[in-house]
Design a protein that fits this description.
By secondary structure, the protein is of the alpha/beta class. It has seven helices and eleven strands.
C-alpha cells in the first residue's frame, strides 16, 4: 500500500500503573484503525493527575466492554447496537479497495462499485462497512478477520473493500489501495454508557476530541472553576461623586468654539473654529 498513516505509526503513551484505588482514572477502549494517540497526549497535558488507560478491543468486543464497565468510554465504529449507549460521531472514513500492486486498478486513482462487478470481493466476518450487498462476486467462504482477507489478497485471491485506516493498519509492500466510490463509509464515534449526564471525565474527553480549548472544556475542571468563582466576594462599585466633590462641580460651562471665560469673543478661541496662529494677510 502506498504511504503510511502518521498517526497509526505514532506510538501510544504507555498505560499508567500503580495508581491507588481512590485515585480517579479514565479507561478508554478503541477499535482497530482508530488511533487515539493525539487525544491521549492532550489528556496528559490537561489532566496530568488523572491516569488514562488504553484498551485495544475488536469491533465485536467494543460495546460489551462499555456495558460491562471494562471501559469508561470507547472509540468505536457506528452504528451503536442499543439505546443503553450514548455516542457522538467524530469523523467519516474514506472507503478504499485493497489490490495487488500489479493489478489493473493500481494504475488509476479511484474505482467505482461498478468496476468491481467481475471481481471476487472478500467479505470478512469482522467487516465494518455494513453492506446490504457487497459489490463484485462473493467468495465461496468469508474470511474470519480483515487481517486474513488481506493475506488472501496478497495471495492473489480476490480484492478487499475496507475503511482507509484499516488498509493502512494492514500495510504490505506487495499491496496498494485506491479510493472506492459509490459504497458505504465507516463512521467513527465516541461512545459511553447512557445517562442523564455524562460523567465528568467522559465530558473532559468529549471536549478534547471535539477540539475545545482548556477554557471552554466542560466537565470536572469547568465545575472546579465555577466553584472558585462562586466563592469570590462580589465586587462593590464606587458611588458616583455629587455636589462640591464632583469633578464637574464649580466649573464654568465651556464656550462654543473652545474659548474660556478669561478670553473675549475676539480672542484666539473665538467662534471662527478656535484656530490660533498668525492672522491672514489682506490683499
Amino acid at each position: 500500500m502506498t504511504g503510511t498513516d502518521a498517526s497509526s505509526s505514532d506510538p501510544l503513551p504507555d498505560s499508567p500503573s500503580g495508581s491507588s484505588p481512590g485515585t480517579p482514572s479514565f479507561r478508554l477502549a478503541y477499535v482497530p484503525g482508530v488511533t487515539p494517540s493525539k487525544w491521549v497526549r492532550i489528556w496528559h497535558e490537561r489532566l496530568p493527575d488523572v491516569p488514562l488507560t488504553l484498551h485495544a478491543v475488536t469491533p465485536a468486543e467494543a460495546f460489551g466492554a462499555l456495558r460491562e464497565g471494562a471501559a469508561d468510554a470507547g472509540l468505536v465504529r457506528l452504528p451503536v447496537d442499543g439505546d443503553d449507549l450514548s455516542a457522538i460521531p467524530l469523523y467519516t472514513e474514506t472507503t478504499v479497495v485493497v489490490v495487488p500492486k500489479d493489478h489493473l486498478f493500481a494504475e488509476v486513482e479511484q474505482v467505482s462499485a461498478e468496476d468491481l462487478a467481475d471481481e471476487l470481493v472478500l467479505h470478512p466476518l469482522d467487516d465494518t462497512l455494513g453492506w446490504e450487498r457487497p459489490p463484485g462476486r462473493p467468495a465461496f467462504e468469508r474470511p474470519a478477520t480483515t487481517a486474513d482477507a488481506v493475506e488472501l489478497v496478497a495471495a492473489g485471491v480476490g480484492l478487499l473493500a475496507v475503511p482507509q485506516s484499516l488498509a493502512r493498519l494492514h500495510h504490505r509492500k506487495d499491496l496498494t489501495y485506491r479510493t472506492l466510490d459509490g459504497v458505504p463509509q465507516s463512521r467513527v464515534a465516541l461512545s459511553w454508557p447512557a445517562a442523564d449526564e455524562a460523567p465528568d471525565l467522559v465530558e473532559e474527553f468529549i471536549g478534547i476530541v471535539r477540539g475545545r480549548t482548556v477554557n471552554s472544556t466542560r466537565g470536572r475542571r469547568a465545575e472546579e472553576r465555577k466553584g472558585q468563582k462562586e466563592q469570590k466576594p462580589a465586587k462593590s462599585g464606587k458611588p458616583a461623586k455629587t455636589g462640591s466633590g464632583s469633578r464637574t462641580a464649580g466649573r464654568p460651562a465651556a464656550r462654543k468654539g473652545g474659548g474660556t471665560s478669561g478670553r473675549g469673543a475676539g480672542g484666539s478661541g473665538s467662534a471662527r473654529g478656535g484656530r490660533s496662529g498668525k492672522p491672514r494677510r489682506r490683499s
